[in-house]
Amino acid sequence: MKELLKIILKKFHLYHPLQSSYRNFLFLKRRAQTRRVYASLRGEGFICNVCSRQYKEFVPDYPTRENREALHNYQVIAGYGNHIFCPYCLSTARERLVIAELSEIQETGMKILHLSPEKNVYHFLKQKGRVTTADILPGFYRTIDGLIEKQDATHFTYPDNHFDLLVANHILEHISDDIKALNEMFRVLKTGARAVLQVPYSELIEATLEEPTINNATKQSALFGQKDHVRIYSLTDYVMRVRTAGFNVEVIPYRALQKYYKYAIQYGESFLIIKKLAT
Ligand SMILES: [Zn+2]
User: Is the Cβ–Cβ distance between 219 and 209 less than 8 Å?
Assistant: First the structure.
């Protein structure tokens, strides 16, 4: 019955918009609860670079039982741990890292491509220029941007040398042909443009663990720590893949990101400065 309803809703293009509205409802409920619970922890400690509120502690987030083993075994930096969500606006550690890094860019009027847009990053990017949002399943994101386009990252319809900045935060671990997606990303960026392509990664492994054609949620959780991931990147291999697509990559280790610790960024996560330089 549930499956039939899903098929009917999908046929009339109602499934993803309804799911998105429901997720928004759950988000607002959770936000109200968290604000209540953390009210007594207001004060100096961490500051959110989305809502500017200060708390002694942010909200932790830990992986579910089915995802835990793979993430633990390979010590994957995947967005879990202490101080992940802002207790006031529920911004995530991964959003705050990207916002902190991109705040250093003074340029405005940029042409920006934001894939699978996260709400807080999207609102931040709008101050920097004209943002085009896109996803393979745009319905999920209509509550963030009603104009979101349907795009396949391995076959963009955009012209060459078109964007000044690309933000695809935690996207590539979902895409079977990530090499093709990286080549497409390189193609649509102008010379001198930057890309934010953070992914979950492990520093314990030298080779990326992957099964690009897998389509089994239970197995994907067990192997890669999330039901829709097709790999766990080795950091060194990931950097090599991005470089092979033509990009210049500079890895800024977590210990060099001290100036952002106050924003409760993801513990241990390196930031990759990725640029399309003139050849
Ligand atoms: Zn906040």
Answer: no
